[in-house]
Amino acid sequence: MERSVPFKIWHTSKTIEGQLYVPTINYILMILTIAVVAGFQTGSNITNAYGVTVCSVMVITTVLYMFVLHYAWRKPWYFILPFGIFMIIDLYTLSANVLKVPSGGWVAILIGSGFFILGFCWFFGQLQLRRFLKNHAETTGLNTLPQDLVS
Can you give the residue ranges of every domain in the chain? Predict the structure, then answer.
């Protein structure tokens, strides 16, 4: 689907289609985990990053679920509105954890931003490549084909 860098993918089950193992991602996660644990050194130091991460994921999940309800499933506003309560609760917990950003929460934001930038650059590059190939295919006419074959 060209939504990410082409990694080697192992299908670990013949009966379950979605059961995958991606060794590259596994090694990246291992290196990041070791780096974060070595950098924070104690469990009490890592809790600030963990709190910011969990609360950010809660907000992002609620927002995306509300978008899916509205745009993909075409649910009416009165069906979506109760999830606004979850959004308010999630935003309260996230705002309480904003105070933890200077004391370690910035690591989670840095790692998440890094993955977002990599994914966005890949997506934008693929979009530009598709546009170029489409324009190139449209401008290569059949009337110039015999000349290209002769030379």
Answer: 10-130
